[in-house]
Amino acid sequence: MGLELTTTRIEDAANWARKFSFFSYPFVTACCGMEYMSVTSPKYDIARFGAEFPRFSPRQSDLMMVVGTITERQGPVLKRIYDQMAEPKWALAFGVCASTGGFYQNYSTMPGADQVIPIDVYVPGCPPRPEQVLDAIILLQNRVQEARGHSQVRDKRAKLAAESG
Amino acid sequence: MSEQVLATLEKKFGEAIASTHIELGDACAVVDPQKLLEIATFLRDDPAMAFDVPVFCTCNDRLGEEPRFEVFYALLSLEHKHRIRLICRLPEDKPEIQSLSGLWKGFGWLERETYDMYGIHFEGHGDLRRLYMYDEFEGYPLRKDYPKDKRQPLVRRDFSST
Predict the structure, then answer these.
(1) Is A154 in Cβ contact with B157 (below 8 Å)?
(2) Domains, chain A, ranges and CATH?
(3) Smallest CA–CA separation between A74 and chain B, in Å?
(4) Cα(B132)–Cα(A109) distance, rounded to whole angstroms?
(5) ipTM above 0.90, yes or no
(6) Full-model pTM
(7) Residue B161 within any structural domain of the chain
């Protein structure tokens, strides 16, 4: 039996581990929540992508799923919960309301959750099909592996700034 | 049955009832805002009226007309199975009306909602705060002259750092 060796960079190995162990925090505010439940149910089996455990504490999660309409009044709450999550972290806008405000154009609805927190993947649809969400998870996995997530880029930038003094 | 309520009101209060009509089966009485509390007390306490359910309270903004605001109170009597809608017309520069939350507690939140959305001031309400919108919100969003795409954000992301 020959000796098998694989070499990689620490960062790549860490990102590989991160992309297959999303712990999602469902910030569920509206009807998209039904579709979110469908995504997490055995039929669509999100466990194939290592993202099967929703954590209901922001401190234990690294993927925030913004599921549903965000109102201006909810903005500070959304921001606080995102800030409580440990780095590195990612955010996914689930459905058109979380992405752009959807069909709401009024005094109370925020035009997209990205007004308050940086979103990595937007999933269109009202509500999106579970397959779209799985596709978004795969897109996000690629983003994590290539270290292109918002918090990863910010982290890298901060490190560079510290090194250059 | 509701027609009898209107007839009784007209007979008892005369001048304070500006007009009455039936709209889609609902008996409506346009009443003098100054006399609203008196009329409502009669509707609640008189055994032949006995309105015990505060069904709804809201406002109609008739922008461009004067008086501009129409405040509605819908009442129901479970005992006599009759309904009535009281309508008070209020001027644009002084949208004030006597609160009925002292007579029917159920109007408390509905009057707060009407205050929140239309800026109608209910005198004697006791706890007239915004119900749905946040305290920092300026203006009254359901008034017809509130701009459709005006936003009043509480928090926004700092786009310069990302």
Answers:
(1) no
(2) 10-164 (3.40.50.12280)
(3) 9
(4) 13
(5) no
(6) 0.84
(7) no
